[in-house]
C-alpha cells in the first residue's frame, strides 16, 4: 500500500533501456495454471481484485475460436488436393469448403486438369483471407468492454473527452490493442489507424479531427460543440521487455526510446497544428502509452498539469498489478488513483488534472485485468514473443477482429505512401511463411460510406487499383516471398466484406492476360 511510487525515475529511460530498475515483468504466481499438452487453458480466475474474469473468459473463448477457424484450413486442403482430378470435384470441393470453413469459393476457381492443377498455395492464402472476412462478419461475438454502471462513453465525456483517436504501430502483436490490452469500448474510439512505427500522418489526423468537430457543430454528435470537452489523441508505441534489442518495434530498429520519442514528437506536431489552424481553445489533449508485447502490460506517460509528457515519467501496469494484488477492489483502484496523482506531483483531488488522471487510471485498471489474463492463460509472458501474423491488411483499418498477432495492418491511401510499411509486413510474414512453402496473404481493403451514391463503386475501383499496385510492386522479384493479393470493400458502418473478382479488373481494361491463380 505504501510501496514507493514505481515511476521511471529521471534518467532511467536511457540507462535501463526504458525499464524501471525493478524489472516490471509481471510476476508469475504459483496458483496460475500452466500450459498443458501444448494447449493453453482458457482464463482461470486467480483472485486479483482487478481481474475481470467474465470479460477475460469471453476474450479467451474468442481467441480460441479464431485460432480454430484458421487451424481448420490445412486439413481441408490435405483432403482436397489428391482428389482434384475426379469428375465433379469443383462443386464437391466448394461444398466441403463451405461446410467446414464457412466460406464461399466459386466452383469455377476449383476446376483442375492434368496440365493445369489447382494452385494449392494460392488457395490456402485465399482461404486465410476469407476466413478472416468470416470472422469480421461475426462482430456480435466481440466481447464487452469493462463497464461499471454508467456507459464508458458517458463517463469519458464527463471527464472531459468527447472522442479518443488511437494511433499505433502496424505490428500484428498490437492487433488486440482495443479489446484486450486497453479494453476500451468502440463507442469512445472515433478513429484508430496503424502505421509502421505508429508514425501517423499529421494532415490526415487533422482531417479526422475536423470531421469529428463538424459532427459536434452540425449534429451535436457525440456531444454539442458548446460542451467544453476535448479531443484526445492517444499514441501507442511498443517494446519487448524480454528481448528489447530484437523484438521491439521493427520500424524504429527495436529501440524503444526512439519509438517513444518519435511518436511523442508527432503527437506534439498534431496538437500544435490543430491549435494553429483552429485556435488554442481547440488544442487536443495528447497521451503517450507504451505496450510490452511480451506481457501486454502498458506504460502510461501521465501528462503533468501543463500537459507535458516526459519519456522518463510513466506508470507501469505490471508494477501496479503486483502492488495491488493483495488489496480489495476498491483499495486497488484507490491506490492507482493515488499513484497517478503522485506521478505528476498533484493532490489526488486536483481539479485541473482530474480528467486526464482519471483516463490514465482507467487505462491502467483495465490493463491490469489483461496482464492477469495473459498470466492466467500462459503461466507467464506470451509463449510467442515475435511475429505470428496470419495476413497483411492494406488500405483501410479493420478492427472488428481483435487478436494479438492476427494481422499486420498497414494503412495507407496509396502504395507510394505506404510502400515502406507494406515491405516491412511482407518481409515479416514471408520470413515465416516462405520456408513452409506458403504465400503471404494480403487483403486490400477499402471502406465506403454506405449512404453515399456510387461510393461502393468508387471504393471498388480504388481497391482494384491498389491490388494491382501491390502485385506490381511485390510479386515475383528474385528471392521475395510469394504473395497472394485479394481486394475487398466494406461499408464504413460495418457488415461483411465483399471480395472483388479479377474479372471486373479485366473488364475495366487490365491487360493482364495470365491465369491469376484462384483470385
Ligand atoms: Zn512497431
Any overview of this molecule?
The strands form two sheets. The chain has a six-stranded mixed β-sheet, sandwiched between helices. Strands 8-7-9-10-11 form a five-stranded mixed β-sheet. The chain has 15 helices and eleven strands. Residues 1-43 and 504-519 have low confidence and may be disordered. The chain is globular, with a radius of gyration of 24 Å. The chain is of the alpha/beta class and 519 residues long.
List the helices and strands and how they pair.
Elements (H helix, E strand, L loop, with lengths): L11 H4 L37 H19 L1 H8 L8 H13 L18 H18 L14 H7 L2 E9 L7 H6 L6 E7 L6 H18 L10 E10 L16 H23 L6 E8 L5 E4 L13 E2 H7 L5 H15 L10 H25 L12 E5 L11 E5 L3 H19 L6 E9 L6 H20 L8 E9 L6 E2 L2 H6 L12
Parallel strand pairs: 1-2, 1-3, 3-4, 7-8, 7-9, 9-10
Antiparallel strand pairs: 4-5, 5-6, 10-11
The structure holds zinc ion.
Zinc ion binds next to loops.
Amino acid at each position: 500500500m505504501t510501496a514507493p511510487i514505481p515511476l521511471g525515475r529521471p534518467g532511467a529511460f536511457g540507462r535501463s533501456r526504458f525499464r524501471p530498475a525493478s524489472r516490471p515483468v509481471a510476476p508469475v504466481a504459483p496458483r496460475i495454471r500452466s500450459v498443458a499438452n501444448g494447449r493453453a487453458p482458457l482464463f482461470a480466475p486467480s483472485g486479483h481484485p482487478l481481474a475481470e474474469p467474465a470479460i477475460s473468459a469471453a476474450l479467451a473463448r474468442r481467441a480460441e475460436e479464431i485460432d480454430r477457424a484458421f487451424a481448420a484450413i490445412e486439413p481441408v486442403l490435405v483432403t482436397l488436393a489428391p482428389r482434384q482430378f475426379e469428375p465433379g470435384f469443383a462443386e464437391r470441393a466448394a461444398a466441403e469448403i463451405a461446410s467446414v470453413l464457412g466460406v464461399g469459393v466459386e466452383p469455377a476457381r476449383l476446376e483442375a486438369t492434368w496440365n493445369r492443377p489447382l494452385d494449392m498455395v494460392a488457395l490456402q492464402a485465399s482461404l486465410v483471407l476469407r476466413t478472416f472476412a468470416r470472422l469480421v462478419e461475426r462482430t456480435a461475438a466481440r466481447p464487452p468492454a469493462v463497464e461499471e454502471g454508467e456507459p464508458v462513453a458517458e463517463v469519458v465525456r464527463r471527464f472531459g473527452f468527447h472522442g479518443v483517436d488511437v494511433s499505433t504501430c502496424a505490428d500484428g502483436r498490437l492487433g488486440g490493442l482495443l479489446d484486450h490490452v486497453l479494453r476500451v469500448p468502440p463507442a469512445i474510439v472515433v478513429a484508430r489507424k496503424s502505421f509502421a512505427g505508429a508514425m501517423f500522418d499529421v494532415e490526415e489526423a487533422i482531417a479526422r479531427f475536423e470531421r469529428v468537430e463538424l459532427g459536434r457543430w452540425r449534429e451535436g454528435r457525440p456531444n454539442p460543440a458548446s460542451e467544453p470537452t476535448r479531443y484526445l489523441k492517444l499514441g501507442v508505441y511498443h517494446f519487448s521487455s524480454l528481448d528489447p534489442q530484437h523484438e521491439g518495434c521493427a520500424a524504429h530498429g527495436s529501440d524503444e526510446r526512439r519509438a517513444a520519442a518519435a511518436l511523442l514528437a508527432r503527437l506534439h506536431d498534431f496538437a500544435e497544428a490543430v491549435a494553429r489552424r483552429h485556435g488554442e481553445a481547440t488544442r487536443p489533449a495528447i497521451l503517450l502509452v507504451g505496450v510490452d508485447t511480451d506481457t501486454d502490460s502498458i506504460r502510461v506517460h501521465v501528462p503533468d498539469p501543463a500537459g507535458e509528457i516526459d519519456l522518463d515519467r510513466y506508470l507501469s501496469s505490471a508494477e501496479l498489478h503486483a502492488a495491488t494484488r493483495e488489496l480489495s477492489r476498491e483499495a486497488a483502484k484507490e491506490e492507482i488513483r493515488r499513484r497517478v496523482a503522485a506521478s505528476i506531483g498533484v493532490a489526488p483531488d486536483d481539479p485541473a488534472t482530474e480528467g486526464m488522471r482519471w483516463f490514465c487510471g482507467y487505462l491502467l485498471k483495465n490493463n491490469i485485468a489483461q496482464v492477469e489474463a495473459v498470466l492466467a492463460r500462459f503461466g507467464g509472458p506470451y509463449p510467442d514473443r515475435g511475429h505470428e501474423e496470419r495476413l497483411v491488411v492494406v488500405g483501410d483499418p479493420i478492427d472488428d477482429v481483435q487478436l494479438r498477432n492476427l494481422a499486420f495492418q498497414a494503412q495507407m491511401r496509396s502504395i507510394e505512401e505506404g510502400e515502406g510499411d507494406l515491405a516491412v509486413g511482407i518481409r515479416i510474414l514471408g520470413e515465416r511463411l516462405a520456408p513452409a512453402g506458403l504465400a503471404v496473404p494480403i487483403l486490400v481493403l477499402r471502406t465506403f460510406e454506405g449512404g453515399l451514391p456510387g461510393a461502393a463503386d468508387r471504393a471498388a475501383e480504388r481497391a482494384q487499383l491498389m491490388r494491382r499496385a501491390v502485385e506490381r510492386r511485390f510479386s515475383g522479384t528474385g528471392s521475395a516471398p510469394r504473395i497472394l493479393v485479394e481486394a475487398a470493400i466494406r461499408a464504413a458502418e460495418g457488415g461483411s466484406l465483399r471480395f472483388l473478382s479479377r474479372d471486373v479488373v479485366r473488364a475495366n481494361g487490365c491487360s493482364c492476360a495470365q491465369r491469376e491463380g484462384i483470385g
